[in-house]
UniProtKB/TrEMBL annotation:
Keywords: Endoplasmic reticulum, Glycoprotein, Isoprene biosynthesis, Membrane, NADP, Oxidoreductase, Transmembrane, Transmembrane helix
The keyword Iron is assigned to this record: no
Protein name: 3-hydroxy-3-methylglutaryl coenzyme A reductase
Transmembrane segments: 36-57, 78-97
Taxon lineage: Eukaryota, Viridiplantae, Streptophyta, Embryophyta, Tracheophyta
Length: 583
């Protein structure tokens, strides 16, 4: 499919002739109506114009040095701006009148025809490029002869100008390199996030002596990540997004976006989607929905720690604690408290619903409310940390595998025997035996914790990156046990995946970025659900589990049929030198 063009097929005609045309003698001048002699009027406005420009530039530089917002103006600034506008209008009107007359009255129609023909030639040359335009290639046009530029409406409104470093930028770069200006403060000092990224990028290249030419800078909204997604940006990384599907689950079809650089992954998952679809689809069920946070507190004695444990786990106190916890959010609702004691130390695992958000910040605020409340009856309680690793976040942990964290989902499908043979190229018996010896026995021999599967993390990571989830939570979100058994007198295959801790959200974090938001929109789960709070994030969790089911089914079939190495050698090996693609 050809990439969309960045220009229209018919260029807008330039307003500047390409040929010089002799001007006729003027019949009248606007300067005839001036009350003062012409040379005095010109001298006055020239002096006013350059004086005001110098004043405004000096004020601007002073504001940058003192970190004063540029929109804060004094009375003298207002007077200077008005004077600048007045002198600019005069000079433009005086010196521009002849130019306007030459455009409107002196141009020959032949000039416009000739220019339009030149523009068509330029477009024809561009369309004749032999190298396809892709994100990994340098698609800049070769130098063109000095003719009027092709300007289109689409470019004017959609394209931002390429960042060009000015003399002032050069001074700031030198200041960053010298260490007098902190790199992290550029956004607040300049008030322009893209300009700050460009300056930081150039300073980094000078400090390290390494080029960042392959890392894109333009084409990204740096305002959208300020104070939310990433600090001190110098560019962005491009990751291709492939589509697997349609994935038929719970009677609905989904096209699943997967951001990955691993060859065969999307193709393999797509084959699994096909097998599921031909067999009537998959069924995915949400078992539990609750994010956790577990602070660590310490007392002077183990008895005092035990007293708090008994208090927190007493059902009579749950309602009081819920009221305190739920003050933090209209979506966060306390579901339960589980404690573990280690000597004088107590680990308190709070579980709460979080709506359509992944919910780490939400549950943390609720926990803080409860800790502040407990200080009244337990003044000797010493809070060691809001997180004591009993949560457990971004680490493989048995507590997540057993108790669950985030969304707990089970997904199943019955694959017809004909589909197993014709689409998956293997047999039911081979898949059942391989799953037993690989995913179950082999994982047990390895001492796996939640890793009783073939490659669940592959699919989870790809979907997480595409939809703006936290990639680090792939650790516990990929906890999965894959089960396979022969059914219907051994003719068909029943396959299931059980995933107790899928941590996803459809609001907050990276989900609000344009690309990730588009992928969520593709799945129909963008933003918060207006009808039922939390419905979108729960649907996303079931999609993730169903995609894992498809990936497990296809990879296990490839291994059973002896196709794994062959397919990877064909689709996951490239003879192309990517490092030279942009040169």
């Amino acid at each position: 499919m050809e990439a969309p063009r960045l220009y229209s097929t018919k260029p807008v005609q330039s307003l500047k002739p390409t040929k010089k045309i002799p001007l006729e003698e003027d019949t009248g001048k606007a300067s005839d109506a001036l009350p003062l002699p012409l040379y005095l009027t010109n001298a006055l406005f020239f002096t006013l114009f350059f004086s005001v420009v110098y004043f405004l530039l000096s004020r601007w530089r002073e504001k940058i040095r003192t970190s004063t917002p540029l929109h804060v103006v004094t009375f003298s600034d207002i007077i200077a701006i008005l004077s600048f506008l007045a002198s600019f209008v005069y000079l433009l009107g005086f010196f521009g009148i002849d130019f306007v007359q030459s455009l409107v009255f002196q141009s020959s129609p032949d000039v416009w025809i000739a220019e339009e023909e030149d523009d068509e030639v330029l477009l024809a040359k561009e369309d004749a490029r032999k190298v396809p335009c892709g994100q990994a290639l340098d698609c800049s046009l070769p130098p063109l002869p000095p003719v009027a530029p092709i300007v289109t409406v689409q470019k004017v409104f959609d394209e931002k100008p390429v960042t060009v470093l000015t003399e002032e930028d050069e001074e700031i770069i030198k200041s960053v390199v010298a260490g007098t200006t902190p790199s992290y403060s550029l956004e607040s000092k300049l008030g322009d996030c893209k300009r700050a990224a460009a300056i930081r990028r150039e300073a980094l290249q000078r400090l390290t002596g390494k080029s960042l030419s392959g890392l894109p800078l333009d084409g990204f909204d740096y305002e959208s990540i300020l104070g939310q997604c990433c600090e001190m940006p110098v560019g962005y990384v491009q990751i291709p997004v492939g589509i697997s599907g349609p994935l038929l689950v719970n009677g609905r079809e989904y096209s699943v976006p997967m951001a990955t650089t691993e060859g065969c992954l999307v193709a393999s998952t797509n084959r699994g989607c096909k097998a599921i679809h031909l067999s009537g689809g998959a069924t995915s069920v949400l078992l539990k929905d609750g994010m956790t946070r577990a602070p660590c507190v310490r007392f002077g004695t183990a008895k005092r720690a035990a007293d708090l444990k008994l208090y927190l786990e007493d059902p009579d106190n749950f309602e009081t604690l819920s009221v305190v916890f739920n003050r933090s959010s209209r979506f966060g609702r306390l579901q339960g408290i589980k404690c573990a004691i280690a000597g004088k130390n107590l680990y308190i695992r709070f579980t709460c619903s979080t709506g359509d958000a992944m919910g780490m910040n939400m549950v943390s605020k609720g926990v803080q409310n409860v800790l502040d409340f407990l200080q009244t009856d337990f003044p000797d309680m010493d809070v060691i940390g809001i997180s004591g690793n009993y949560c457990s976040d971004k680490k493989p942990a048995a507590v997540n595998w057993i108790e669950g964290r985030g969304k707990s989902v089970v997904c199943e499908a019955t694959i017809k025997g004909d589909v197993v043979r014709k689409v998956l190229k293997t047999s039911v018996e081979s898949l059942v035996e391989l799953n037993m010896l690989k995913n179950l026995t082999g994982s047990a021999m390895a001492g796996a914790l939640g890793g009783f599967n073939a490659h669940a993390s592959n699919i989870v990571a790809a979907i997480y990156i595409a939809t703006g989830q936290d990639p680090a939570q792939n650790v516990e979100s990929s906890h999965c046990i894959t089960m396979m058994e022969a059914v219907n007198d051994g003719k068909d295959l029943h396959v299931s995946v059980t995933m107790p801790s899928i941590e996803v959200g459809t609001v907050g974090g990276g989900t609000q970025l344009a690309s990730q938001s588009a992928c969520l929109n593709l799945l129909g789960v963008k933003g918060a659900s207006k009808e039922t709070p939390g419905a979108n994030s729960r649907t996303l969790a079931t999609i993730v589990a169903s995609a894992v089911l498809a990936g497990e089914l296809s990879l296990m079939s490839a291994i059973a049929a002896g196709q794994l190495v062959k397919s990877h050698m064909k689709y996951n090996r490239s003879t192309k030198d990517v490092s030279k693609a942009s040169s």
